[in-house]
Amino acid sequence: MPESLSGFGLGGAKGRYVSLCALYLFIYYGFGAFAPLITQYYESIHLTGTQIGLISAVAPIVSIVAQPMWGMICDRYQIRKTVLILTLIITGLVGLLFTGVSSFVYVFLLYILLSFFQSAVVPISDSLALGYANGHGIQFGDIRLWGAIGFALAAFITGLLVEQWGPHVLFYSFCLAFLIAILFLRKVPEEVTEASRFRVSMLAGIRNLARIPRFALFLISSFCMMGSVNANNIWFSLFYQDIGGTIAGIGLAFLLFAGSEAPFMKLAGYIVRRWGLELTLLLSAIFCTMRWFWYSSAPSTTAVIAMFFVQGISVGFYLATAAQFVRENTPASLQVTALAIFFSVGGGLGSMFCNLVAGWIKDSFSVLAIYLFFGIITAIGIIPLLMIKFGRWKQISPDEEVQASQ
Hints:
The chain is mostly helical. The protein has 17 helices and no strands.
């Protein structure tokens, strides 16, 4: 059978690109079915705000350990696709187990297990996509935007299903999306450069990355920025209902929010080429800060929906450029590890901190006060980005920067 007709009818360079986009579509469809609506499941089994905060903090805590481990395994043995297939299967199946539990203890333990395997999915898929984009002259944002589309569709469709059939539907959608993603992963190429064949120990790799000032500052910013963005996925449904919205409205909101990310990810490529990664990241953080402060003022649901594009500017710009910044500012031999550490600090430590504080704020004050906190923490994250853009650290080769510090 000719290559152009093999697999899903996707062959050659075009087929591999389409498969990579489809991989992102279904991975993030799974995330979109889970994250925006998981709070409805928590509410259905009568968990408190503090318990929700503790469970939401589990994934970040686990990822702090697990993501660097997965990254080092992939960098050392060059088995990214194998690890990604394994973790997609196990994560999806563990998700189904939530349908059989209803107590805080069992949910907490299942979330630890799910988080351990799920923590490998984003950094490994981003590493595959970045390698392909770099080797074929494609902007990473052009691939990543399909994740935004998948997330948007899942939040809307699953929101309607949850309203009709109950919150357990989200776990079936989550598992099915991950299993479908594996079918397309088979056609995704694994770009391996000579530099990425170097063998490094875990501790040596982390020490080398810590010697790069621009990367270290970016980790501080990601703690604040990604922490609040990821926590918003958990707390938005309660916020939206608090200001008068419905469950179906939550799905519509996420459809518009996540859907707006795709065109802005495309626009991010133009802005990066014209003004650079640093300015694009700064714009993202500034708009994100303004958004959280505005939410804390209790706007109407109509206004929140009407201003849906603010998520595209803030989150879309960030998602399209953050991984690219990590890739361009770390040695080639440590890029899966660098991405894993980046997600561990931002999606891990940052999300853990924001979710724990948000849970306490909900029980002690109000849902609106959560967004005041998000605004403050994100504003703090602007400072290291300003230091990267206007500070004394000139951008040299990451490998040269590591060698110079030794």
